[in-house]
Amino acid sequence: MRLRNKPWADDFLQENEAIVVQEPFAHKNSWQNLFLQHQPLHLEIGTGKGQFIAGMGNQHPEINFVGIERVKSVIVGAVKKVLEAETENVRLVNENARDLRDMFGENEVDHLYLNFSDPWPKTKHEKRRLTYHTFLEQYQSILKPDGEITLKTDNQKLFEYSLVSFSHFGMQIEEVQLDLHEYSDPLNVPTEYEEKFSGKGQPIYRCRVSFKG
Ligand code: SAM
Fold it and tell me: Where is this region: Interaction with RNA (predicted)?
């Protein structure tokens, strides 16, 4: 059953306008006004069903979070997670993240998360990978000069591709972990995909990079 065309999903997203930003492009350079407090702004692209952003919102009341997810039937789940978490520092956007510079101003974002992004394994789809250089250009524009990107994935090929792409772009690799769950990190908030793949015994790759290079 396809939920995408279900009117109740549209109604649900509109009813929760305190969490779901209805006109995200209208808030360029003024995202802080959507939150109770002005504090660092962290952005997740491809939020999925929202376990990460809801958990991070709870763990970090000193940070404002925005999660972008393009699939309506999926972001409905994220809204429910944020409601359950009763956290006031998370906002969600039902959009494609391809035009980030139309949504966020220069230096407006402090940190960016790419969690288990679609790998797009075929070479002909390379441009769709969220670490393709055209995306890196956007990230560089909206991130503060000392801003960072944290990427987590189970996909070794996407991880290797991303490290090479960051490096070719002149970025600095701050930290690399080849098996995130080898040692427990009490601050790590797992995503839905992360739990699924680490539950099967697969290693989770994580890196933190910046544009300082
Ligand atoms: N981050 C979640 C997790 O780790 O459980 C979901 C991972 S899922 C593989 C990738 C998600 O990113 C999908 O829900 C997809 O719709 C979303 N996505 C992919 N490209 C996107 C884009 N350009 N803009 C917004 N969302 C995107």
Answer: 124-129
